[in-house]
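Data availability excerpt. The first of two example chains:
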Amino acid sequence: MGRFLLGRVLQAALATFGVLTLVFFVMRLSGDPTLLLVPEGATAEQIAALRHALGFDRPLWVQYAEYLGNMARFDLGESLVQRAPVSVILGSRIPYTVALAGGALVVALGVGIPAGIAMAVWRGGVVERALTGFVLTGQSLPTFWSGILLILLFGVTLGWLPTSGADGVASLVMPSVALGALAMSTFARMTRIAVLDELSRDYVSAARARGLSRGRAVWRHVLRNAAIPVITVTALEIGNLLAGAVIVETVFAWPGIGQLAIQSISSRDFLVVQAVVLFVSFTYIGANLLADLAYGLVDPRIRVAR
């Protein structure tokens, strides 16, 4: 287990280094970053002065070495618009986005996995047809449209929940449902496929022949063996939820990094946008690392083979 863990951590570290390098060079190869930061109508002297102040007039390898050094110290620079450290700005928004993504993941897992299991166990019956319609509805509605519908129904018409802002747990309900609907459909379909595949295997027939009920066979044997693809989807969906939070946070005026990214792009706050990209990328890497470690816990054969 130690070698398996070390190998996965080293791969995650290599991926992190690759992301840092890619972000640095893509930002520079796309053009002079100074031109993104200066106001419209700036003179050549003002552009040159800002380029010198930010160090963009130095050799590329010097900028790259300083960039890696700053990242190692978690120094993301200073926002030119808000005149505050980027790490402070990002840190004040991350808890809101993590809470939103966490709430959406709870909705997706709590509804999607039981629905997928039910669709597989009662295949071809009324339960599966009803749940299939429910899953397709969640998959078909765009996030911004479902968010608006939730606001109109539960916020405006019924008045049960606040329509915008981040004022307590009640404000988290509608954004979490809107963001988690698509992921819920993905979990339901993947769980159904995985459980159906396991139910067709010989060990389930043998368990049933020994007198084990279908429900107990599913609970004792099938679910653990069907967990691998669900873990994979969970790792991918965590990153997708963070990326999809941009739309939901705009609709519900939720003060997370999605709303921060939109504001920073509009104001040409280059360093803040770069920090948001790095945060989302590192979240993907971390989620996939946790998924790899979970594989080894659920199925020891995976870490032995690797």
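And the second chain:
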Amino acid sequence: MKALSTEIRRVATPYGAMEYTLERKKVKNINLRVKESGEVYVSAPKRVPVGEIESFIISRSDNIRRAAEYYAERDMKKAQPSYENGSALMFLGRQLRLELMTDSREFIALWGMALEVHMKDTSDIQHAKELVEGWYERQCSDVFHDLIVKVHGKFLKYDVDLPQLKIRTMRSRWGSCNYTKGIITLNRRLIEAPRHCIEHVVTHEFCHFIHPNHSKDFYALLSAEFPDWKASKKELEKTVIL
């Protein structure tokens, strides 16, 4: 389909001036899309007046604003965490404030909503990162292992052996199950999510020991062992963006 013309325009909306890209195409209707970058893209037939197009945009301005905010929030969650004093970090569904504290000893303490990093030189951000990531690794090991043991109790009736736990960072998966070798691998970033969301992923992977697929039988088993899995999955996807 050949484009007839493209131009960048601005229109006044209840939320302020909004810039959009207008492309004239051989289409029947006005089509509007908010790209992941936040850019507003509109395609319309050549015969439709600009005034009608902009009235259409204004009528959708609330949806456009919410879509742009969603993508901005998602990008922020996907960004690599900062390890400077005062930075925000996620842990088990809570947002923690990173506090770098000068101390002759080196240790990390979680006090309420503050993650205190005691270290000799608080200006050494790289070392602060190493200390925090080491703390996260220990938390992953403890929390994930506890949940593996907990969920395993539900699967004893299916004669499932306690699996080996592996932890690694994955770009597109929360977990995986090697049912032939008895291994469950969990994404390190799960530690940022609420505990019940992690338990849902663990249960999901345990179900693969019974059904190594995503068949109706698999989801029937998952629903039986974790009835609220759909809500937990939705919460997980909103809390931690891969």
